[in-house]
Amino acid sequence: MIFLYADGASRGNPGPAAYGVHIIDNEGNLIADFGENLGTATNNQAEYAGVIAGLRYLSTTSHRQVTIRLDSKLVVEQLSGRWKIKNSGMQELAIEARGMLNQFDATFEWVPREQNSHADANANRALDEGDFTSTEKANLPLSSIQPRSIRAPRQYQEPTTIAVVRHGHTVNTEKNLISGGDGTDPELSELGLFEASAAAKQLPILLSEFGLPELSRVYHSPMLRTTQTGSAIAKDSLELISDVRLKEIGFGDWEMLEMAQLETDELDLVSAWRGSLEVAPPNGESVLDMQSRVWAALEEIIEENRGKAVAVATHMMPTRAFSAAAFKGAKNAYFNLNSSPGGISIYRFFDLDFAEVFVLNSCQHLIRN
Question: Which fold has domain 2-138?
Fold first, then answer.
């Protein structure tokens, strides 16, 4: 028999939160101490996270008889099956914990807080100092922040929330001129400046509505129109990061032309280009060319911002590339998804293989009274 002590800490409830785990054998010898910062969560969510993380660690060992001790009567009673769980978020965590419990001969015990001091200290250490572990084997990927749908596959990495904003109108947009990433670099028009400002105001509202973290930084294409949009979102308070991989797709020789003209002068090439991921304009980029660089940037953004939320100010085709990644490479995202100037899409990427989609091209903030 071994003993798993788990505790959660939340300053604000919900607020900045972490869990702590303390595992000992029957003679009191330490097996593992570890803790992990959870971002924003409630005390109860953090308690569940500790149980799940402790069980996940033990699943990598030979220990199968375990007494789980918590100072949260709620979690003890719920996981023992004696109390009902009404909160949907807690139901998700309970389902995950019970799935882990199938591997063990486990019992739950409520203990007074003073008997759970090691786990409590570990939770507060994680909250103050960040993730830590006494053994490399306990350095496990976060298991407690899961997709909102209980039908979704379980995830084992902390997700990154990404709010993608297409830049506002430019003079070229208003004249229906082709404007890519390898030619002219127009600034936002008066309408475009309004759209950028409106998107900046709407982003924190949407993130709060879905219970997602506040923005911590803003990535943007280095082109003028996206730099202006990114700056409106950052408001001189968030870090601005320029990434050339987020530029618009290159239109090459078609830059600054009207599609009506091209359909007259280069009908065969335009016909082959439409609906194709491989065909590029003369001296321009194909969709797959653009996708490759945007997805490389996306993968880095995910890894560098786990547990956080960031904004990305970019262009029409890169916004579609983010959607295509969220839908696991869906080709149609490049052709049937509208991407409005100033439109907002919000995703939670666990990695390039799984993402949640919260909104696509949200435009309510662009309505002018």
Answer: Nucleotidyltransferase; domain 5 (3.30.420)
